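Here is a typical sample entry:
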Amino acid sequence: MPKMKTNRGAAKRFKKTASGGYKCKHSHLRHIL
């Protein structure tokens, strides 16, 4: 996942998806953090 330097999205558990990517409770949450 490029362009993911901010940790604010992780704090919100990725509730907002730009292009329908990840949603709440995902296995990618820990990868981005």
Notes: The two ends are 11 Å apart (CA to CA). Residues 8-11 form the longest helix (4 residues). The mean pLDDT is 56. The CA atoms of residues 10 and 32 lie 7 Å apart.
